[in-house]
């Protein structure tokens, strides 16, 4: 039986070197877009519509949608919320369709959207997602959102965690050095994500903005059994 | 006193995100271009002229130069040698000006050539190079050559080794996650480069070509006290 691929791509800019060879793309933006999307879908939000630009976000707002917009870690003026996972846990959001535009995460989702299947990964839904991926028996690419097309540590570690989980079943293989390195970084980080990521540039960025509670939430694995999936340009709950 | 920067850039494609902020660029292609260049300069070759394309290499050959050309790990037909470090140790090369074109390394050198200073790094000249870099007290970027614009493990580990060496003096700092991750990968690899890199894709590629002796040589640190430096489009020995 031929093994399936599990690879880790570090940035949306690198996606062109991986494109076309994978059945499932897992988009990862641990701090904080994909953690927020998991929170929203877990909380009963009907769908999250990811848009790349502030202009698109404004168009949805004019049509009456609730819209989250974040740039440089902060809520964009005039929008309802940013990408704090806590914003998406409010009871009044249940059943709603909401719109989200972030610096990196929603851009990565839109870059990947031509793939057969796009799902949302974070540390918060790690094990639940990995178990589902293993059952699918398809070629999987973890697409880290990075920071403005540069490598970032927390998304790579989350990708490495997924790679490690799939590889140890013996049913998957990795060919790319980026995947091997992501796995090693996960193994070095896994006993203390919080301590390991002290040196992460984005964590430093968010700390300046007093977002320590958000960071703790996003770096705590397996708080949610949920898989958000992209269908017709909207992210919904995968029911199975 | 303000600390100087030491950062690691994973591929020539990523160089645009780093460009302009560094005084010294260290170009790294451990398997095998920069290891071969260190060998050549250490062996007394007068200069190595790095060219990006096979066409340029042929033009030099027509003018009577000895020319090395490698693509996909193999010597390009019609040229004198490829990028095996052993090819550059021959006594008849002493004092000569030779030309080299390789898949990744010479491309990285040419991408970096507008920087104030470009030097050649490998594991073979690691400590000698690091000591010199520390003395310069300038902003340093390690530019890994990668494999066709994708991340590669051995160049990243070499960059991480340089970063670790400079950071531990307390006179340098890193801001980018790529540098932090490179340092962690070096720390995981440092006691056994050969074992750690068993899973490297390029090592597998070269192993198929029966280049195990080359790999051993390139992964053995500190066999040469030499710093090749780019001056007027030629790589020469830095005398100091």
TrEMBL record, chains A, B:
It is an enzyme of class 3 (hydrolase). Its cofactor is Mg(2+). Keywords: Hydrolase, Magnesium. The keyword rRNA-binding does not apply. It catalyses: (2R)-O-phospho-3-sulfolactate + H2O = (2R)-3-sulfolactate + phosphate. The keyword DNA-binding does not apply. GO terms for molecular function: 2-phosphosulfolactate phosphatase activity; magnesium ion binding; sulfopyruvate decarboxylase activity. InterPro entries: ComB-like, ComB-like_sf. Its EC number is 3.1.3.71. It comes from the Bacteria. Belongs to the ComB family. HAMAP family: ComB. This is Probable 2-phosphosulfolactate phosphatase. It comes from Brumimicrobium oceani. The gene is comB.
């Amino acid at each position: 039986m031929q093994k399936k691929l599990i690879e880790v791509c570090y940035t949306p800019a690198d996606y062109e070197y991986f494109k076309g060879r994978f059945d499932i793309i897992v988009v990862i933006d641990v701090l904080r877009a994909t953690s927020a999307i998991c929170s929203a879908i877990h909380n009963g939000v009907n769908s999250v519509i990811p848009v790349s630009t502030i202009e698109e976000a404004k168009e949805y707002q004019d049509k009456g949608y609730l819209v989250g917009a974040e740039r440089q870690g902060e809520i964009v003026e005039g929008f309802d919320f940013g990408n704090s996972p806590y914003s998406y846990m409010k009871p009044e959001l249940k059943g709603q369709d909401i719109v989200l535009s972030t610096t990196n995460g929603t851009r990565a989702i839109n870059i990947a959207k031509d793939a057969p299947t796009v799902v949302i990964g974070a540390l918060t839904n790690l094990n639940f997602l990995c178990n589902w991926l293993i059952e699918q028996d398809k070629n999987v690419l973890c697409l880290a959102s990075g920071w403005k097309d540069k490598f970032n540590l927390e998304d790579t570690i989350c990708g490495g965690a997924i790679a490690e989980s799939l590889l140890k079943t013996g049913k998957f293989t990795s060919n790319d050095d980026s995947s091997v390195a992501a796995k090693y970084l996960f193994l070095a980080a896994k006993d203390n994500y919080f301590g390991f990521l002290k040196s992460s540039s984005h964590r430093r960025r968010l700390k300046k903005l007093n977002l320590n509670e958000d960071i703790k939430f996003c770096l705590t694995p397996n708080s949610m059994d949920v898989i958000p999936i992209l269908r017709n340009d909207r992210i919904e709950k995968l029911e199975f």
